[in-house]
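Give me the fold.
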Amino acid sequence: MSSIIVRQAEPKDYPAIIELQNANTPDQLTEEEKKQGFVVSSMTEETLDGINKNLGVLVAVEDDQLAGFVCLATTNPLPEHPVVKAMYESFPHQIFNDKKLTDYRVFIYGPVLINSNWRGKGILKKLFAAVKDFTKNDYNLGTAFINDKNPHSLAVHVDGLGMTALKPFNYKEETFQLVVFSV
């Protein structure tokens, strides 16, 4: 695993990111595979490029193979995603360390996905450390949402990475956990 490199994505990485993402949407996974986590949104190369230019997309690569990725976005401008908007609208009512989320310099973390061939090898922790290093000069808090139908992801982020779960929020008929972490 020492040959894993984490860096900002380049346009040449976009097809592999999209392929990995599309292979891990709920409609592509068995019920057993869904227990390992999933992503719900699909992105185009144009969307990825916009995210990468907005704040960044970090990739973990080994021998030119994509081991995983994480997207990072600013809150200004806010990404045009309805669940992100619902999460952001909950910020004035969310408290972390006795302060409202609106009192922090906040960025949005996610989606994040690790290729099944690299799971359990510390890739997520490497990506997470890189996220903190990448954002530490301009932000002091990262935020993410996790669908209640994805308990594995919640456990990985809260128990595994030490994120803090705040008050859940809803979008349409679904409930999402809002998690935060200091950088």
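The longest strand covers residues 65-74.
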